[in-house]
Amino acid sequence: MFDAVVVGAGPSGGMAARALAASGFQTVIVDKKKVVGEPVQCAEGVSEFGLVSNGIQPRDEWIMQRVRGAKCVAPNGNWFYITRLAGFAIDRPSFDRWIVQGAVDDGAILRTSTRVTSVTRLDDGWRVSMNGDHTDARVVIGADGPASLVARQAGLVRSLEKSIAYEYRFRSEDVPNLDPDFFLLHVSRAYDGGYAWVFPRGETVNVGAGGPIDGHAATLAFCRSLGIDVAKRTQTIAGSIPYRYDLTSLALPGLAIVGDAGGITNPMNGAGIHPGIFSGRIAGECAVAALSSEDPSAVLAYDRILRASPFLDPLLWWMIDRVRGWSDRFMNSVAEELHGLEWRAVNVRLALRVLAHKPWLAAHARDFLRMIRTLELCERYGW
Ligand SMILES: Cc1cc2nc3c(=O)[nH]c(=O)nc-3n(C[C@H](O)[C@H](O)[C@H](O)COP(=O)(O)OP(=O)(O)OC[C@H]3O[C@@H](n4cnc5c(N)ncnc54)[C@H](O)[C@@H]3O)c2cc1C
User: Fold this and answer.
1) What was the pLDDT predicted at 284?
2) What's the DSSP call for residue 226?
3) Mind giving me the DSSP string for 270-293?
4) Which atom of ligand 1 approaches the CA of 146 most closely?
């Protein structure tokens, strides 16, 4: 019997495996992919805070470029800064492999081309069936992405709502008027609470759209609106993103569900790298506590920690429901007032000046106040 089986070698599973292997526990990481991290399903944006606060120092081998923050662009082209905190465009396959390699260096075993087909409870742990065989372990970490078999097999899933993200990669010279220093998030009623993006990535750029929409059609239309010739794309990337996952718990004695598998992505923007590495790290630490104390129920602390964290703040879901009802006129009007500024520029003086010539915006006062709290939360924990 192994100490732990981690199902899924994405960033969430990799972080859990690192914590387990570093504490000397016999850990197996399994992934159905032939090569960890490939094919990529990501726009590859992550904040510096997200990495560093989880003990990851940015490394040249997977950093494509540094960005100076992110801008929100309204349908009329007016924009404001969502954040001026630094972040990175990374190379996800190299990043995922680097995280997993850290666990392997500490003694974990990596099994690729290995698909888990069932997870069942034993008296003293769990049986994980894969490739016609099985492995028993005292702890299982379900890090198997948005369709999580582990969460379903453990009987934790009440409902799963996903959205679709679709993107093309281009060479930088094929994207007109590229802002080389910032991630751009284009909002519009057309994306129904989702958005379209332009993420510079060194010599390449990821351009796409996501939300409860037809991501392919939206990406094509978005590229055309920017004057990008889609025939020049060098790669097509698509995948689903957890939107609203309802799990009875993220943990059972000896089992934890992390990252996308637990729906731990930011509903405002779909970002899941930072939430994933945080949840993987915390689940790994709780699993270490359980194995060290020979008390499987110590894993249950993971559910409490995650639910109390900014990543699962109910405000995020309240806010995205409001945003889905916003018209282009409303978004244009707000962006007009904030054009070129940071959202932090909103103060009583600015609010009174705006209300003097747009009194109809007063009806949205509660949304504005809550949006400011949301932006504050997302600046650090949303990407
Ligand atoms: C198009 C797109 C763009 C995105 N852009 C961004 C972005 O810019 N920034 C950001 O922060 N987030 C972004 N995301 C979200 C981000 O990619 C995910 O949140 C992140 O990958 C979650 O990591 P994870 O380790 O939880 O899951 P994953 O990375 O999905 O890893 C799960 C792993 O489990 C394996 N697996 C699944 N089932 C089994 C099984 N039965 N047996 C064995 N192995 C299995 C899979 O092969 C996979 O390797 C984007 C997502 C998409 C689709």
Assistant:
1) 98
2) T
3) ---HHHHHHHHHHHHHHHHHHHHH
4) 30
Q: Is ligand 1 within 6 A of the CB of residue 31?
A: yes
Q: Could you give the angle at the alpha carbon of 210 between the alpha carbons of 209 and 216, nearest 5°?
A: 60
Distance CA 352, CA 350 (A): 6
Structure confidence by residue, pLDDT tens digits, 129-163: 999 999 999 999 999 999 999 999 999 999 999 99
Nearest atom in ligand 1 to the alpha carbon of residue 149 is 41
Q: Taking the complete model, does pTM exceed 0.85, yes or no?
A: yes
At 76, list the tokens.
């009329």
Domain ranges for the chain: 2-59+91-158+243-316
Nearest CA to ligand 1 atom 4: 42
Ligand 1 center–CA 40 separation, angstroms: 8
Does ligand 1 lie within 6 Å of residue 78's CB atom?
Answer: no
3-state secondary structure of 104: helix
**C-alpha of residue 32 to centroid of ligand 1, in Å:** 13
- Specify the pLDDT at position 25: 98
Average pLDDT over residues 355-378: 93
The answer for residues whose C-beta is within 8 angstroms of residue 198's C-beta and 6 or more apart is 175, 178, 179, 183, 184, 186, 205, 206, 207, 226
12 lines ligand 1 (CB under 6 A): yes
Look up residue 274 and give its two tokens: 């930072």
Residues 242-294: pLDDT tens digits?
999 999 999 999 999 999 999 999 999 999 999 999 999 999 999 999 999 99
State mean pLDDT over 68-76. 98
Q: Decide whether any atom of ligand 1 lies within 6 Å of the 167 Cβ.
A: yes
Ligand 1, atom 2, lies closest to the CA of 42
Distinct helix (H) and strand (E) counts, the chain? 11, 18
Determine whether the shortest distance from the Cβ of 239 to ligand 1 is under 6 A. Answer: yes
State the chain's mean pLDDT as an integer: 97
Architecture of domain 2-59+91-158+243-316: 3-Layer(bba) Sandwich (3.50)
